Amino acid sequence: MDSLISKLDRTASLTSIIRQSRWLFRLLPLSVLLVMMIHEPLRAAPDSVLAECLALTDNEDEIHNCLDNILDTADSDMAELNRRVRRMLEGDALAAFNRAQEAFVSYRKENCLWYLDITEPRSIAEQVAKDCLARMSRERLTELRTLINGVSASTVTLRGHIMDVGSRRVFQACGRDSRYQLGGDAATLAALRQYLASRGGGAEPVEVVLRGVIEENAELDTNLAGVVRLRSLSEVPEGDDAEADENVCPVPDVSDLPVDGGGGNESTGDEGAVDEDAVDEDALAAFSDGFVALGEDAAQPITATGDKQTPTEGEALVAYFGSWQVDCAVERRDRVCTLSSQFQPEEDGATEIGNASPELQIRRLKAGRSMVILNFPGREVDSPAKFRWRIDNWQMGDIVGSVIRVDADGTRQLVDDTAFVEGEIIPKLKRGSSMGVTLLDNVDDETGEAFEATLVGITRALEFADEYIQ
């Protein structure tokens, strides 16, 4: 009996403790609960932004610097993608996108910054808020890239001639009989007029490379096959063999087209007068946003829907994105792109190397293969351990498994482990804002010459290269 009473007493005491703990739990500040339930899982979550920074350092200031760098990069990428999307959309679609972006910015702010008011200590609150901001920004960037891929799915690249026929502007692709009226938003068409004015006003056919969406069977007169809604435009540079170039893309005969006819500009979106002097630089920059130079064998369209030509020797493309140059060509009947950007000496005393600067290259090959190459002209470096890499605050150190090649031009460090390049280096490059390389005086001393290259534009450069290769 005493044993039973003792058990009942212990049970009553335990029940009382549980009840008290429930009230205690209810009385705990919400901020403490947030720290208990949110902050620790963020430390353990491998994909969180905060976890990336905590993996680099335990120093509180350095953690905040890391989070700030990631946020700055995300904001820069967001602004860049916003510009791209706005150039691709028009009318109601553009207005809807602008509303959606404004709503996202407002929601992200309200959804993340409330942590600052309810979480203690302040440092943890700021880390949680920044992690939230960066996570939502990355998710939005993924959505925007998906949107761009969807909008671009029907976009084609064509080489041909633009000419004025009466009040209409007509495009005819090389080797094709079909002719299309040019359309697009008002800013793009105004920029087109400015460009053609610099080439003589459009009185004579002008050879160009354009990217746009073809609308077949638009309600125009029977002499035109439809409308090409212009996305971007670039000039075809004159080659050394003008006669051979004319055989590739001869100037079309448009004498059979009526000077004026049905359709006019009604189906092009070019309605109303446009103040060409008011067109900003972004509208004009859209004309060089993609293909800057095109080899003469690439006269047929490259589509994003899978109908690709067999690559032809001599095909070549050159494009510029921020500080990055992209050179694409056909090598052994495979399309290959080389992305390159130059390093500049940092402020701590690095010197120029002869007449050339160090250069970072990324070779994009078929089947998702990539190689990273560090070029140091005018130097003989005998060990890869003398090169110390970093991306923002991520200290990569010396690249184990890399290979050194030395010749009369200088030294190249090759990193051709595709799994490491695709899984580690390129994702960090796309999220980073700068890359640094230090050339050590010797492997036992951390002093040396430091160089830095900006990563602005690398995401667009990689997308461009992959689209060309695929």
Could you explain how this protein is built, in words?
The protein has 470 residues and is α+β, with helices and mostly antiparallel strands. It has three domains: 49-152, Up-down Bundle (Substrate Binding Domain Of Dnak, Chain:A, Domain 2), CATH 1.20.1270; 156-234, Beta Barrel (OB fold (Dihydrolipoamide Acetyltransferase, E2P)), CATH 2.40.50; 316-469, Invasion associated locus B (IalB) protein (Immunoglobulin-like). The protein has helices at 2-27, 30-44, 49-56, 60-88, 91-113, 115-118, 122-152, 186-198, 242-248, 281-285, 418-431, 458-469; strands at 155-165, 168-173, 179-183, 206-216, 226-235, 293-294, 302-303, 316-321, 324-331, 334-342, 344-345, 359-364, 370-377, 387-391, 394-397, 403-407, 410-415, 434-440, 448-454. An eight-stranded antiparallel β-sheet has the order 6-8-9-10-12-13-17-16, covered by helices on one side. Strands 1-2-3-5-4 form a five-stranded mixed barrel. β1 (155-165) and β2 form a beta hairpin. The radius of gyration is 29 Å and the shape is flat. Mean pLDDT is 71; it is low at 1-44, 240-246, 259-308 and 348-355.
* Rg, Cα atoms, Å: 29 Å
What would you say the CATH architecture of the largest domain is?
Answer: Sandwich
Instruction: Name the overall outline.
Output: flat
Our count of helices gives 12
- Strand order in space, largest sheet: 6-8-9-10-12-13-17-16
How helix-rich are the residues, as a percent range? Answer: 25-40%
Helical/strand content category: alpha+beta
CATH topology of the largest domain: Immunoglobulin-like
Report the sheet-strand fraction: 25-35%
Largest sheet: 8 strands, antiparallel
Mean pLDDT: 71
Q: Low-confidence parts lasting 5 or more residues at pLDDT below 50? A: 1-44, 240-246, 259-308, 348-355
Total strand count, please? Answer: 19
Termini gap: 84 Å
CATH superfamily of the largest domain: Invasion associated locus B (IalB) protein
What top-tier CATH class of the largest domain fits best?
Mainly Beta
